[in-house]
Amino acid sequence: MSKNLFDKVWDAHRVGSLPTGQDQLFIGLHLIHEVTSPQAFGMLEERGLKVLYPGRSFATCDHIVPTESRARPFADPEAEAMMAELEKNVKKHGIAFFDFASGRQGVLHVVGPELGLTQPGMTIACGDSHTATHGAVGAIAFGIGTTQVCDVLATQTLAMDRPKVRKIEVSGKLGKGVGAKDIILAIMARFGVEGGLGYAYEYTGEAIRALSMEGRMTLCNMSIEGGARSGYVSPDQTTYDYLKGRPYAPTGADWDRALVWWKSLASAPDASFDDEKSIDGSAIEPMVTWGINPGHAIGVGQRMPKIADLPPAERDVARKAYDYMQFAEGAPIAGTKINVAFVGSCTNGRISDLRDAAALAKGRKVAKGVRALVVPGSMQVDAQARAEGLDKVFAEAGFEYRNPGCSMCLAMNPDKLRGDEVSASSSNRNFIGRQGSPRGRTLLMSPAMVVAAAVAGEVVDSRSL
Fold first, then answer.
1. pLDDT (tens digit, 9 = 90+) per residue, 148-187?
2. What is the phi-psi region of residue 99: left when phi exceeds 0, alpha when psi lies from -120 to 50, beta otherwise?
3. For the chain, is the Cβ count within 10 Å smaller at the N or the C terminus?
4. Among residues of the chain, what percentage have pLDDT more than 70?
5. CA separation, residue 167 to residues 5, 101, 132, 233, 328 (Å)
6. pLDDT of 89-124, one tens digit each?
7. CATH number for position 117
8. Taking the mean position of all CA atoms in its chain, how far away is CA 347?
């Protein structure tokens, strides 16, 4: 049997094996933001080290950036300090910085692919857990901690345990109104939030191949939510068409050479895997979370599970979830009232996401009492949305259309839930307190489902609109 893509890319970047049993892996692309980099740069200073390959690191600001006003200094002194530290360090070490003035600022996992920095066959690292997003182009990408950020800056390598590889085949055609967010939430519901521990996920099958590149990014983005170390899709014509002509993509003869390499990477039909799973894509409906982790997901037409029907190992967490969410077991998820609707994040803040959301928002109005936000994932997404008039569609419907940033995904900025508000969110995590309030309640769903909930004032099937 032949190698799968993960093993091909890992072996191509393995510098050597360490006495610990780990591999020393060369990192082709390193992405930096303002939250996890200050301490890493501080470690370099303490050790008298320099950035070894500054041309392989790229920075932007996203987590703490206010989405209403970009006036400096930021109102939050801690946010301003992080921003100033990043500005100082990238200047000192000669690292490219996509700041506001560049016109390319945005969420790292939106900016990297749209600029063509993210390419097939790469190893990619970033001090952010959702770095798996970049696997959508056929790269292997890892979220890392601050100490590892320092390691990459100083050596351009990481010491890593080699994960096993699991193939997840999503067969059949998706139904109308069902997309990548629904696929990944269905996978989380099926295999749980710890099902992928020790694995990298390869997503394949008819339903996956039919996804756009941006849909594949949504899919790979949430691999970490299932416990996987990374997630990826083998490159194909959709990948090459997406990358061609982007600012950092190869051109001319370099493109031709790159294409030969990229085409050699895809997992062959006889590729070997450590484990294989399958899901019927045609059976997936629009998904919604009901609890306190992304695995607490059900179809919009289903009822929340009864604790007695769950496996014993899941019951304590379910009890905690029902207590926190103030929901009743066995109740339908449809009809759940919401207070806030959020479209955005590294999961669903791309132009295709905004187009899907605007298509449902057009000619409709946000329900009375619902606070609704749309936050583009980057300045380039924002510019495209404005050129298409999407900002006006959202404004006329009653949504607040903001500047690019992470916004209410993790609320390390002014965009937060208040009290025990219920949020319909296109982001990636529904942990306790995730969206800024220690009592806030998050329901994860697709952008179309968020708009449908915003208009109805409650969870509804977006297909009914």
1. 999 999 999 999 999 999 999 999 999 999 999 999 999 9
2. beta
3. N
4. 100
5. 11, 42, 15, 10, 36
6. 999 999 999 999 999 999 999 999 999 999 999 999
7. 3.30.499.10
8. 4
- Mean per-residue pLDDT for 216-229? 97
The domain that holds 264 is classified in CATH as: 3.40.1060.10
Max intra-chain CA distance, the chain: 63
Among the candidates 248, 283, 318, a domain finishes at: 283
Please count the structural domains in the chain.
Answer: 3
Which of these, 53, 223, 59, 69, lies nearest to 134 by C-alpha position?
223
Which residue range forms the structural domain that includes residue 327? 288-464
Do 85 and 131 belong together in one domain? yes
By the 8 A CB rule, do 2 and 141 touch?
no
Same domain? For 230 and 128 the reply is: no
% helix / strand / coil in the chain, to the nearest 5? Answer: 40, 20, 40
Q: What is the DSSP letter of 171?
A: E
Share of residues in the chain with pLDDT > 90 (%)? 100
Same-domain pairing of 12 and 26 = yes
| Residue 409 and residue 318 share a domain | yes
Which of 138, 160, 182 lies at the terminal end of a domain, its last residue?
Answer: 160
Contact status, residue 346 vs residue 428, Cβ threshold 8 Å: yes
